[in-house]
Amino acid sequence: MKDAIVVFAPHPDDEILACGGVIAKRIVEGYRVLVIFLTDGSNSLKEIGVFSHPTPSEYGVIRKDEAKRAAKAIGLREDNLHFLDIEDRSLEERREIAQKGIMELLYRYSPVEVYLPQEKEYHVDHRVANCLIRKSIDQLKIQPVRYEYAVAWRFPLNLLVRIRPKKICDLIISELLNRRIVSVDISRFLSKKRAALNEYRSQTEIIFPNQKKPAMKKSFVQRFLSNEEVFFVAE
User: Fold this and answer.
1) What does the alpha-carbon distance between residue 99 and residue 24 come to, in Å, rounded to a whole number?
2) Span 121-149, mean pLDDT?
């Protein structure tokens, strides 16, 4: 087996949305791919007004189970998944615990590539994750290639996502961030990515009694089902 590759997911589903095709591709190429889930994703239903049935703690269990099924669909072995189990939206307050877990796993696997959320993302857990992962890499003095992904940009970059064609939008953002853009052809693995995303039913469907809309809109999910995955790499 080739060297290790580590994908960091602030919440269960980020790994598939942003990197599902790359994960499947790298596995076929013979790399050992590991996914590290930083938080449990337990509070995302609150954003659509669901506070009970399930409760956040119950929902965290559901999302972990979905992550395991999604991993199987994409070709990952369950022993290559690591859950830090930090409460959703508390990464800022639990920085020390999170960084300790991140450093231990980076030290253990010494990856040649690391996939991490971009520092200009909308969700605070994503932004904090970027900071903690970069700091851990620097402190360990390892030198993996760092591929930054964006699930949802924060203001004002979020205003650019409507620009078409999408490649123009990506190029503008790469210039603003001073990052080299890397596009990976995942067309061969798109069906696997779609199957893995389908395992996150609690995010993409209406399945709970008090729920009126899905946590993620269909149009949002569709954005990640193209033939390319885009990453930003520091020069």
Assistant:
1) 27
2) 98
pLDDT digits (tens, 9 = 90+) for 2-41: 799 999 999 999 999 999 999 999 999 999 999 999 999 9
Answer whether residue 87 is part of any domain.
Answer: yes
CATH of the domain at 226: 3.40.50.10320
Calpha distance 156→145 (Å, rounded): 27
Is 78 a member of any domain?
yes
Angstrom distance (rounded) from CA 85 to CA 97: 10
Classify burial at 101, counting beta carbons within 10 Å of its beta carbon; exposed 0-12, middle 13-18, buried 19 or more.
buried
The whole-angstrom separation of Cα 114 and Cα 147 is 6
Sorted by sequence, the CB contacts under 8 Å of residue 138 that are 6+ apart come out as none
pLDDT tens per residue across span 88-108? 999 999 999 999 999 999 999
Report the side by side order of strands in the sheet with 4-9: 81-86, 32-39, 4-9, 113-117, 145-149, 228-234, 179-185
When divided into structural domains, the chain yields a total of 1
Range of the domain at 137: 4-154+181-234
